[in-house]
Every structure is written in structure tokens, then in C-alpha cells.
Amino acid sequence: MDVLEAIRERRSIRKYKDAPVEDDKLEKVLEAGRWAPSASNKQPWHFIVVRDPGARNTMANQHTYGRFMAESPVVIVVLGDPESHPKYHLADPHNAVQNMLLAAYAQGLGTCWMGVRDTSIEPKFKQLLDIPDKYRVICCVSLGYSRTTPTKTRKPLEDIVSYGKYGQEK
Ligand SMILES: Cc1cc2nc3c(=O)[nH]c(=O)nc-3n(C[C@H](O)[C@H](O)[C@H](O)COP(=O)(O)O)c2cc1C
Predict the structure, then answer these.
(1) Which among 19, 20, 119, 157 is most buried, taking Cβ atoms within 10 Å?
(2) Is 126 near ligand 1, meaning CB less than 6 Å away?
């Protein structure tokens, strides 16, 4: 699939079919995260793949805006490592997440990005998944086969782009 098509057509999926995600597809998603750019190439991230229904149910109950984790067969929990990069350990994992969303979409899989960092959920996820203290839990991503085709709009380019100097039109 063309990368521009994936960027344009990917949508957040919050309803999933009762069908497992194949290991080879999951690995390609994780590989896409691995190849994301990071400051000084420090790669200050770690990904926890959660398939266990019990753990997913617990996370779904803890995350007000992520109830569908109970339904998606996979959840990827994304950590940031401050020891690896003190300044960019919060930002760089997001690059990996975006790559993963696109790699999933290109393989016919749906995803939804859910924020975790700096919420009351962060310590709960740490406890549930035995995450060492040093890490930050940046976010989690549901992964599975979609049973919806949602649509979304975006602001027009002219509202978010200037040319030459702020506020100047092309
Ligand atoms: C940092 C971040 C946090 C998000 N947190 C949630 C969330 O907790 N629950 C949820 O359902 N969607 C969440 N989303 C998904 C956004 O709502 C979604 O990307 C946005 O509405 C645009 O829709 P689209 O992804 O379908 O284009 C999050 C997205 C980002 C980037």
C-alpha cells in the first residue's frame, strides 16, 4: 500500500472483530515501530504486547476512553525510557506509535491510540504489567480487525500552514 494512502485513509478503530492478529503481522507492526526516527538514534522506547484477555479487561476497566481494549485481541503498551534519552523519551515513542498505526493499516488491521502518560492510569498499568519504575507509560494502542469504517475530517491546509512567515499565504 502506498504510504500516502495509508496516512490519508487510516482511522481510529474502536470496534473489533473476534479474530486473532497473526504473529507475522504483529511483528511487522513492531518492526515499523523499531525503525521510527529518534533523537540521536537513542530509541528510548519499549513495547509490551498484551494478548491476555484478563489483562486487557483490567486495562479496559481502568481506561475511561479505552473500553474497547477488552475487545481488541492485542494491546501494545508503549513505554518511554528516561535513562535512554532524558530529553526525548516522552516525544520519541510517539514517532514509533505513528509508524505502527500505519503499518497496521497497510496490513488490513485497525488500531486506536490511547493516551496514558500523566493520568491516574499510568501507575495502575505499571503495577499490572510489572513495568520497572524508571519507565514512563506513554500510551497504548489497540490492534485487531475492524468491524467499523469510521470517517473523520481535518482542518483545511490554509488554516494550519503559512508560507515564508507566519500568517502569509502562498
Ligand atoms: C495522544 C493521543 C491520545 C489519544 N487518546 C485516545 C483515547 O484515549 N481514546 C480514544 O478512543 N482515542 C484516542 N485517540 C485517538 C484520537 O481521538 C483520534 O486520533 C482523532 O479523533 C482523529 O481520528 P482518526 O484517528 O480516526 O483520524 C488519541 C490520539 C492521540 C494522538
Answers:
(1) 119
(2) no
